[in-house]
Amino acid sequence: MVARERDRGNTALMWVNDGRPANDPRASAFNERRRCYDLIHDALQHLDTASSREPEMVDGKLTLIATKRLEAYEVVNGSDDEVFHFDLYEWYMQQGWTDRILAIDSPHVVTFLQRLAGSSAEHADLLCRFYTNRSRFFDAAEVQAQLALSDFALGIKDRIRLLSLAKANASVATVGVSRQQQQMLNHTVSESLEIANIQDDLLGRLRMDERIDAEKKTEVEQSLDGKMLELSQVRVPRPTGFGPVLSGCSQAGQLFNEFADNVGYHDVCLLIYHTAGYRNPTTIAATWSNLIQQTHEEIMSRLEGLGPGMPSPPMPYEAVTSKIRNIAHHTSLDSFAFPIQTLLPELCRYAVAYQQDTSIGADPTWPVQLFLALGVSHDMILRVLEDIFDTQDYGFSGMARNRIIETIVYVVNSWVGEARRRGGSGKGGTIGPSVGDLLARCESALPPPGQGSNNGGADLADVRRVLRTLRREVSGLMERVATGSLRFM
């Protein structure tokens, strides 16, 4: 009451709301009011000290001092003096009593924490805690997302943690928040989380890369272990001779792109393509080819340098499989970053060219087994293989064509087996006449019995036998589907 009487125009509140500008005459009104507030702070502190010397409850009832303390804080928290509330909360912060602030139910405390959140990461985190304590999960998610993208001195892992929390909070149903609002925030946070994870992966690998000197590593850490890059900064490097890679973008943006490409982190480049929505098929196909080649060479180098007692690395095709699985997981089989129509033929070519087949004890059909395990339909895989069979591209001409026939037979056999289990249809739809036609053409393309070879693959006699059995089964399956009978004899 006394404080407000000294400032009837409420100029102190206007000064606070304007951000407390320096050299403003209204500051004197605030200081006058603060002298009154300091007396209240002293009284509260004396009351806290006195009550701490006595028990709070006796025989199940509040003691006199506990009652007086409770009444005092009810008066304080119930005050309608907004300037007093802001000053009180500042005093609480100075005393380290953040729990008191979190326990207060007042519109003034929300305003105070919202203003404070822009001053430091710790204060923004306090606002998040306030929201989550009151089940305001959407508001907490917004603050966490803003904090993760802020200019505060936070490492990339801290930003990933904040985005993960924001994603979880944005997924929780909150009173007064529509499903559409949740989805929009979730999408934005998920997109930022993808970029942050790529940035963290790139940073970790650059730190461990022995090709980079210590001075450059320090520069990399300063650029990448901090503020996240904007999506607009994620660009694909231009081919040599086309000028600056990222004219106008920050140094961090240039490091993010140039290092991933120039240092040969092809898997990171593919994730960048996916996140940035880059869709140049030639560049993407070349990056996949480089990744397969690089992975193979790295494993071969490790095998050549293997000493006594050293653990054996995986086989080259196993390492390639692992890389592809990881990228498939992160891209969700995106048709641009994960182009099955070019990746599968490239993988089949690699298996033959580098003898990643029975020559080393591997199953020669491992490329299609990988794609089936990733959830790609039999129909899609078969269409890609049929194209290779017809065009004889990727080096699958002459005797090498037998390997594609063997692979086609494997996929159809798997499809028929699934159709049996499902009662007439398999993953990717019903087996149609085109499958029977493809099998017939494959059988015609096989060399006469006793002739030809299938280096690195199964015996041609076995391939022919399974193929003929499949032709009969596919023919019978189509008849049963046509007549409505799903029984297999």
Automatic annotation (TrEMBL):
PANTHER family, per the entry: NUCLEAR PORE COMPLEX PROTEIN NUP155 (PTHR10350:SF6)
Protein's recorded name: Nucleoporin
Compartments, as annotated in UniProt: Nucleus
Keyword terms of this UniProt record: Nucleus, Transport
One MF annotation (Gene Ontology) recorded for this entry: structural constituent of nuclear pore
Gene3D superfamilies reported for this sequence: Nucleoporin, helical C-terminal domain, Nucleoporin, helical domain, central subdomain, Nucleoporin, helical domain, N-terminal subdomain
InterPro entries the record matches: Nucleoporin_Nup133/Nup155_C, Nucleoporin_Nup155, Nucleoporin_Nup155_C_1, Nucleoporin_Nup155_C_2, Nucleoporin_Nup155_C_3
GO biological process: protein import into nucleus; protein localization to nuclear inner membrane; RNA export from nucleus; transcription-dependent tethering of RNA polymerase II gene DNA at nuclear periphery
Primary location: nucleus
Similarity comment text for this entry: Belongs to the non-repetitive/WGA-negative nucleoporin family.
The keyword DNA-binding appears for this protein: no
Ranges where the Nucleoporin Nup133/Nup155-like C-terminal domain occurs: 2-423
